[in-house]
Design brief:
The protein is an alpha/beta fold. It has helices at about 15-30, 50-60, 75-85, 90-100, 115-125, 160-170, 190-210, 220-225, 230-235, 245-255, 270-280, and strands at about 1-5, 30-35, 70, 110, 135-140, 170-175, 215, 245.
Length: about 280
């Protein structure tokens, strides 16, 4: 299995731990992620001009070299999907291609890494690599962008793919009604008070499930729920102390990787208790 790989900005910045776990787990599974050269930002939430924002993602998709385009970031995935749909408009495609050296042809399908595991590899195949069933309870948090815009990967209202992945690793997915609610990450810079309030709602609900951790699929969500968890505790005078880990890190623990090989020591909310419960070494 081989994919063109668009890492997005965070994997070379704030989400190095995510990158470490992706490389370890996908390497073990024999999934080849060929990083595109000279890639650019997807535009995130900061490019208001539709043509420019579509053009940024079109340039990325045009570099796929006949392969599907995999990405680890919910926001990047959403932007690639929106561009893929928007560029069905031939007039817009003509305008965008006039600005591109490598022309967009529409052949590369954007895929989130979770989709690559659940749909392309398949969970039965993944379970063959499980060496240590996890025996923990984990909150599946999809975030607000993974299943939007609507696509054939999972339901935008009630997604199940991450729940099923957690279950396949020997863990129990917690019943969590906020699984697609925004974490506040996209507005953290412009309205920190509101952003922390949104994160507080998610974290309190997650804590009330009795889970051992929250599992995320996006570096922005991880930044908000892990790095900003202390700020939430301080602002609202509450105690959360709930580890937030990437789905690839959860996979790696079940596959028998040492926690250090998965970047778990780089989190701001300590993962020691979680690792000890699984039976690994912090």
């Amino acid at each position: 299995m081989k994919y063109s790989y668009y890492p997005g900005c965070a994997q070379h910045g704030t989400a190095v731990d995510y990158r470490i776990s992706v490389e370890a787990v996908f390497g073990r599974l024999g999934i080849d992620l060929e990083e595109v050269k000279n890639w650019n930002c997807c535009g995130a939430l900061h490019v208001p001009d539709r043509t420019v924002k579509t053009g940024l993602s079109a340039r990325t998709l045009a570099s796929a070299k006949g392969l599907d385009m995999a990405t680890p970031c919910n926001l990047c995935y959403s932007n690639l999907m929106r561009a893929h749909a928007a560029l069905e408009d031939s007039a817009l495609r003509t305008i965008v291609n006039e600005a591109l050296t490598e022309k967009y042809d529409g052949n590369a399908k954007p895929k989130h890494l979770l989709e690559v595991i659940v749909k392309d590899l398949g969970l039965p195949k993944l379970t063959e690599h499980v060496k240590k069933p996890l025996k923990i309870k984990a909150v599946p948090y999809y975030g607000c962008l993974l299943t939007r815009p609507e696509n054939d990967f999972d339901s935008p209202q009630n997604p199940k793919s991450l729940d099923e992945l957690i279950l396949s690793l020997g863990a129990e997915p917690a019943k969590y009604y906020y699984k697609t609610k925004c974490c506040g990450g996209p507005i953290l810079i412009t309205d920190e008070e509101l952003a922390l309030g949104l994160a507080k709602e998610l974290l309190v609900m997650a804590k009330e499930t009795g889970a051992d951790c929250v599992v995320v699929t996006c570096p922005m969500c991880h930044l908000q729920l892990d790095a900003k968890q202390k700020a939430v505790e301080s602002k609202f005078n509450i105690k959360i102390d709930l580890p937030v880990i990437y789905f690839t890190q959860l996979m790696g623990l079940a596959m028998g990787f040492d926690p250090k090989e998965l970047g778990l020591s780089q989190h701001l909310v300590p993962t020691d208790k979680l690792i000890a419960k699984i039976g690994g070494r912090p």
